[in-house]
Amino acid sequence: MTVVGIGADGWDGLTGAARAALREAEVVVGGARQLGLLPAECGAQRVVWPSPLRPAVPGVLAAHADRRVAVLASGDPLFYGIGRALTEELGAERLRVLPHPSSVAYACARLGWPVEDTEVVTAVGRPVARLAAALHDGRRVLVLSAGAGTPAEVAELLRDRGFGPSRMSVLERLGGAEERRVEGTAQTWPHPAGDALNVVGVECRWDGVTPRLGAVPGLPDGAYESDGQLTKRHVRAATLGALAPAPGELLWDVGGGSGSVGVEWMRTHPSCRAVAVERDAERAGRIARNAERLGVPGLRVVRGTAPEALAGLPVPDAVFVGGGLTTPGLLDACWDALPAGGRLVANTVTLESEALLAERYRRHGGDLVRLAVAHAVPVGGFTGWRQAMPVTQWAVVKSPRPSGELPA
Ligand SMILES: C[S@@+](CC[C@H](N)C(=O)[O-])C[C@H]1O[C@@H](n2cnc3c(N)ncnc32)[C@H](O)[C@@H]1O
């Protein structure tokens, strides 16, 4: 099967190899708009993808299994395109992919931005809120729009997160005869909504007033909406260090509170995932708001009491226990859910939970540490230390040894 990337310039913009593949195909599958770009000389049967597309892919492929099939894709088929579904269904070795420049390649060409210095955030089928995690003064971000309304949503988000001075370039119908560019700043948007096919280039400019959020864990406590149930900044930074997120990994944040640990886990890489489990309904709602505001709207919130609420969750790479340590069966359930090599980190400020962690430390090893943070505060005309409650933290990597067996 050949997958042919096609742009707004249609047949004229295709390479010789792409044209040959389409001429020789017995069946061409694509979106109605893409199929409409083919000239009459392509005599193949034309099949329009049903909607919704993804569940229909296996059926369409099976229906034409014994014929020469070409699939039309928009731009680069393996960049947020149909190429992903086709490699999942058929395997990469059964596909020949002929890419066309992607919307990102076109947009960077028009803006004069090096592609490797450009962050890409997609709003297609996902919330624009993810852009918030990519906002850093001086960075260039391209937003792949879901439609004509996306530029106004981007502008609103930028204003709301302290990036109103950012320059926005809306690039419509890239590569086509009706290509158009609209410029402005987030502050002074909206321009009238334009074409549904557009990409938004953002040159991030921070307003210098809104609290600045860095790229590493340990965001200021004020970045979170909270009722006080919040792992504070310095302990949080140490906690994320021990959890050691890597791209693509899944965290369970058990006793999510305000959600800060799951939020900061997910902010380390767009492919990181987290599930926050929180028994209190009000706090569960707050976790979702914090996740949305800080650019990780994909954080899953499970409202329920652990360990029961953990049943059926996908296998984690790491578990953080921030609350509920003394709930019977909770720590065992977290430990049992972890695969070998998985990490567990548990924090507590109470003696009862600390005793539990000391016993686990004896059994499984790891690091048992006490984090005592003090802040300088005014004392009369002088300055003194105000000590926060010390936090006991147990951090351990689960070894392949069966649980309960004493270390040698
Ligand atoms: C200290 S807070 C965690 C703070 C959190 N790491 C943060 O930074 O926002 C502990 C939370 O655990 C929740 N909790 C306690 N026991 C629980 C259980 N068995 N299941 C689910 N949540 C629980 C409490 O409602 C509370 O919100």
From TrEMBL:
GO MF assignments: protein methyltransferase activity
Spell out the Gene3D superfamilies in the cross-references: Cobalt-precorrin-4 Transmethylase, Domain 1 (3.40.1010.10), Methyltransferase, Cobalt-precorrin-4 Transmethylase, Domain 2 (3.30.950.10), Vaccinia Virus protein VP39 (3.40.50.150)
| Keywords linked to the UniProt accession | Cobalamin biosynthesis, Methyltransferase, S-adenosyl-L-methionine, Transferase
Alphabetical list of InterPro entries matching this protein: 4pyrrol_Mease (IPR000878), 4pyrrol_Methylase_sf (IPR035996), 4pyrrole_Mease_sub1 (IPR014777), 4pyrrole_Mease_sub2 (IPR014776), CbiE (IPR012818), Cbl_synth_CobL (IPR006365), Cbl_synth_MTase_CbiT (IPR014008), Cobalamin_biosynth_MTase (IPR050714)
* Pathway per the UniProt entry: Cofactor biosynthesis; adenosylcobalamin biosynthesis
Sorted alphabetically, which Pfam families does this protein's record hold?
TP_methylase
CDD domains xrefs: Precorrin-6Y-MT (cd11644)
Domain Tetrapyrrole methylase: from-to ranges:
2-187
Q: What name appears for this protein in its UniProt entry?
A: Precorrin-6y C5,15-methyltransferase (Decarboxylating) subunit CbiE
Source organism per UniProt? Streptomyces chumphonensis
Organism lineage string: Bacteria, Bacillati, Actinomycetota, Actinomycetes, Kitasatosporales
